[in-house]
Amino acid sequence: MLKISNTVTLQSWEIQLTAIRAQGAGGQNVNKVSSAIHLQFDIKHSSLPSVYKERLLALSDSRISKDGVITIKAQQFRTQEQNKEDALNRLAELIQSAMVVQKKRRATKPTRASKERRLKSKNIKSQTKSLRGRISH
User: Exposed end of the chain (fewer CB within 10 Å): N or C?
Assistant: First the structure.
C-alpha cells in the first residue's frame, strides 16, 4: 500500500512492478542480476479520486502515455529493494505534484521611478558611446 496523502492511498494490486536488468557499466552484477525496477500505474483504472485522475492526465509529463499509464524506471541503486522503494517514492511525488495549485500570475507595470532610472542609464550609455566616434579636426 502506497500512501499519497492523509486520505488517499494506493493498493499494491494497482501498481505493476517488474524486475529488469539495469543499463550501463557494472560487470557481473549488471549482466546477471535483474536489479532495476519497471513500474507501471494505470491512472484511468485506479482507485484515485477523480480530481487526481484529471490533473494527472492533464500533465505534460513524458512518463505518462496517451493511454494514461505512468511508467517509471528505477535503476539508480544496486539492490532491487532500494530501486523498488525509489520507484514508489517517485510515483508518489508525481501524484502529489499534480495536486499542487500554481499561483495565478498578476500582470504588473513598472514604477515611474524604475522607468526614469532606465531612461537615465540609457542616456548615459548613449553619451559614452557617442564619445567613441572619430574625432574631427
Answer: C
